[in-house]
Amino acid sequence: MKPSYKRVVPFLLILLASYQSAFGQGKKPNIVILATGGTIAGAAATGTQSSYTSGKVTIDAMLDSVPGIRDLANLKGEQIANVGSQDMTFEIMLKLAKRINELLASNDTDGIVVTHGTDTLEETTFFLNLTVKSDKPVVMVGSMRPSTAISADGPLNLYDAVAVAADPQAKGRGVLVVMNDWIQGAHSLTKTSTTAVQTFMSPLRGVVGISAYGKNDFYNSPSWKHTTSSEFDTSDVNKLPRVDIIYGDVDMSPDLIDCSVRNGAKGIVIAGVGNGNMNKASIDAAARAVKQGVVVVRSSRVVTGTVGRNVEVKDDELGFVASDELNPQKSRILLSLALLKTQSPEQIQQMFATY
Ligand code: ASP
After folding, report:
1. Which one of the listed residues 36, 39, 109, 124 is annotated catalytic?
2. pLDDT confidence of 43, banded at 50, 70, 90?
3. What's this model's pTM, rounded to 2 decimal places?
4. Ligand 1: does its nearest atom lie under 6 Å from the Cβ of 157?
5. 135, β-bridge pairs
6. CA end-to-end span of the chain, whole Å?
7. How many CB atoms lie within 10 A of CB 153?
8. SS3 state of residue 318
9. Per-residue model confidence as pLDDT tens digits over 283-306
10. Based on CB atoms within 10 Å of each CB, which residue in 85, 174, 219, 308 is the most buried?
11. Is 125 annotated in the active site?
């Protein structure tokens, strides 16, 4: 007996629909969004108000405000913290690294997006770049305008961040930052404007790629060691050693260095002038610190360029470390992690050449 079309067609349609929902859905990557606060979650009373409070909007409310974002991936949100990133702490950063490692170890998670304030976004990004143990995409995102502003930049940034985290091409490039169409690498980006939407730049290395309305184009991969090739493991760490940054300027006061040592710093980063320089009195204070077992890293307050060994300062003789390409705030992150493993300036210098 021939089956009638009337009977078979609806059956086939049902079969097709269930195939699409089972396999079409299954094909979408699973992305977890870990929210920490920042301007992207900020709110003001009106759309034109310059004052606002960071970390007011929850991750679910943020996701609901981005049209089409759930078409890119299966999304789950988790609130890790809800602070302006000026209040970010090492405690939260350690918690974030642990949670990311936990999630990425499972086959159920294909990538992570972290929403974060922009003020200290480069520190958390670099910290995660050294402590995440997976080559799956981890993408940081923030915004310069609060969610309530006219032309808020958060929604498109979040959309693009999810598109990058869902993209297999983003794998193995270390922790990335996606903001204002640009995909940038943890090692090289820095915040360059207090207010501009195009605030993050990578002056020495350039962008890793572009993400435009969720379409990604990758140009290069950061060449520094990161994630799976990093030697740093914070899974059992609850506290990082104290490292202070001391700003160099004309006629700087050397007693700031002595004060930092007295207060228990295990490392000091000098945001020096020019090529990581400081005046003679401060060099002497830094040399005294080294003699007491404190590791001194010379970085620079200048926004681009490298700090090289023994250029104007006798690093070999005085036992200092030169920061290479790392700015003071990222030098502080690397030095804090390095001090968990060693106090040897030679070994730490090697790390600054590697990470
Ligand atoms: N103060 C804010 C923060 O870092 C600024 C921002 O997110 O753009 O949380």
Report:
1. 39
2. confident
3. 0.92
4. no
5. none
6. 73
7. 20
8. helix
9. 999 999 999 999 999 999 999 999
10. 174
11. no
